[in-house]
């Protein structure tokens, strides 16, 4: 990823006829081979030209390498800040941006406002030691972008020469922004009117839980009221965060339970499918076995019927034989009687002859 970033930077420099700056190349090489946090691009205190910043902005527009980018104390020109802001407006990966000590004012301030209007991932922005409040119109553009931003959680505007009029613009923007939680306005020129604007804003904004206002010539009673309101917001936010944490925990627990139920259901369905396969195979085997037994039974039936027919024929023949035997016995008995009669007659004849 780091090597890809360096290659894209060099290629875009060639496409735009810009000489790659050694300080940028050295920083990228040190991140590739060093033990530093490779998710942080730190070009602080380097002297960057507007053309280099324009190229870096184009690279950062699609970058998914760095979650934190630092350009502090680089004394960037307006065009340099514009180039970076135009790219960072479409970055979807960076979470922290540090532009401390770059004398940002005028058109550069407006460019940062437009960046905030489009950027949806930045959560922390440091703009300490700049001159953003020097031109009220430019700062109003910045505030307009801040008011429509939905991701920024912490904003550092220390030492930016912000007047009470600019604070009023900032307060109006924060009435629309319900996402910013921490705002640092130390060492500016808020004054009484600025303090009142902030206090009025806090009546409707319930998300700012940290507001630093030291060095702004705000009367102590207003400061006390602001501190009380901010503390109430902090307490309320702590309760909301705790509820969200519990809700997330419960949601995770529910998701885990649903996942377990799904796994159990899948296992049950798999077991049922296996059981059905086993039953189907068993039924098929039983059907085949029954078919074989039916064939064997049919064969046995055929053999039995054949034997029954033979037995019937044998019984018939036996009946006929018994009839014949009976007839022969009758003939024999008759012949015996005839022979006895003949013997008696013969004996009588012999007696007659003897007489």
TrEMBL record:
Gene3D superfamilies: Ribonuclease Inhibitor. Keywords: Coiled coil, Cytoplasm, Cytoskeleton. This is Leucine-rich repeat-containing protein 45. It is found in: Cytoplasm, Cytoskeleton, Microtubule organizing center, Centrosome. PANTHER family: LEUCINE-RICH REPEAT-CONTAINING PROTEIN 45, NY-REN-58 ANTIGEN. Coiled coil: none annotated. It comes from the Eukaryota. Pfam families: LRR_6 (PF13516). It comes from Candidula unifasciata. Its main location: cytoplasm. GO terms for cellular component: centrosome; plasma membrane.
């Amino acid at each position: 990823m780091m090597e890809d970033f360096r290659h894209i930077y060099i290629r875009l420099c060639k496409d735009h006829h810009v000489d790659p700056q050694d300080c940028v190349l050295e920083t990228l090489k040190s991140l590739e081979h060093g033990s530093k946090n490779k998710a942080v691009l730190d070009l602080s205190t380097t002297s960057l030209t507007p053309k280099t910043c324009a190229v870096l902005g184009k690279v950062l527009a699609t970058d998914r390498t760095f979650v934190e980018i630092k350009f502090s104390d680089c004394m960037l020109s307006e065009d340099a800040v514009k180039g970076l802001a135009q790219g960072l407006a479409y970055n979807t990966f960076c979470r922290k941006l540090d532009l401390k000590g770059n004398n940002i004012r005028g058109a550069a301030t407006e460019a940062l406002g437009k960046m905030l209007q489009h950027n949806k991932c930045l959560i922390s922005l440091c703009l300490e030691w700049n001159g953003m409040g020097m031109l009220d119109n430019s700062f109003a553009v910045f505030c307009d972008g801040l008011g429509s931003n939905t991701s920024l959680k912490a904003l550092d505007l220390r030492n930016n020469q912000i007047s009470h009029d600019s604070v009023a613009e900032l307060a109006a923007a924060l009435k629309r922004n319900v996402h910013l939680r921490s705002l640092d306005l130390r060492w500016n020129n808020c004054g009484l009117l600025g303090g009142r604007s902030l206090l009025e804003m806090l009546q409707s904004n319930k998300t700012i839980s940290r507001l630093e206002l030291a060095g702004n010539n705000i009367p102590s009673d207003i400061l006390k009221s602001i501190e009380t309101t901010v503390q109430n917001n902090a307490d309320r936010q702590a309760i909301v965060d705790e509820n969200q944490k519990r809700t997330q925990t419960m949601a995770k627990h529910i998701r885990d339970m649903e996942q377990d139920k799904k796994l159990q259901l899948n296992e049950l369905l798999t077991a049922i499918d296996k059981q059905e396969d086993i039953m189907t195979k068993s039924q098929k085997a039983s059907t085949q076995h029954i078919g074989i037994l039916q064939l064997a039974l049919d064969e046995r039936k055929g053999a039995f019927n054949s034997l029954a027919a033979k037995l019937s024929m044998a019984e018939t023949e036996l009946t006929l034989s018994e009839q014949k035997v009976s007839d022969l016995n009758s003939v024999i008995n008759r012949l015996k009687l005839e022979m006895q009669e003949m013997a008696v007659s013969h004996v009588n004849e012999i007696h007659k002859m003897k007489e």
